[in-house]
Design a protein that fits this description.
Layout lengths: L8 E4 L3 H13 L6 E4 L2 H9 L15 E4 L8 H9 L9 E5 L4 H10 L3 E4 L4 H18 L5
Parallel strand pairs: 1-2, 1-3, 3-4, 4-5
């Protein structure tokens, strides 16, 4: 297993409870990753493009992994995913769709748009901890991420 500095995780989700549970699951797994959160696709794109309140790189570092909810107000996750994967500067950032939808159409559509993984949000905290452990093992220990 490789060792490297922690990767910044950026979560785009409009549900404060899901964000809090994800943060707690990261702590439970003892991950040292820098964790940032935005509430919708517009904020996600502003963060990634360093616009508005996200201009300072030290406060809004480039993520090494994006956790993306599909169903958000304004610009939803599908639109944000299309914008990310359509941008030469951003398309190399891995995007893991983490959403409540289990619909086959959503799975197929997000992979068509360039999602790197699709995970249905677990219904329990223990399930979320298992997902975070799996993400840690796969994305942060096994695969090489772009620098």
């Amino acid at each position: 297993m490789k060792t490297c500095s922690p990767v910044t995780i950026l979560m785009a989700d409009d549900d404060p409870a899901d964000v809090l549970l994800t943060r707690k699951a990261l702590e439970e797994c003892r991950l040292r990753n820098d964790f940032h959160h935005v509430r919708d696709g517009r904020e996600l794109m502003a963060y990634l493009r360093r616009e508005g309140k996200f201009t300072e790189a030290t406060k809004s570092p480039r993520p090494g992994l994006i956790l993306l909810d599909l169903n958000m107000p304004g610009m939803d996750g599908r639109e944000a995913l299309a914008a990310i994967k359509g941008d030469a500067e951003l398309r190399t950032i891995p995007v893991v769709v983490l959403t409540t939808s289990k619909a086959d159409e959503d799975v197929a559509a997000t992979y068509e748009l360039g999602a790197n993984s699709y995970i249905a949000k677990p219904v329990t905290f223990d399930g979320l901890v298992d997902v975070v452990r799996t993400l840690d093992h796969y994305w942060f220990q096994l695969v090489a991420l772009p620098g």
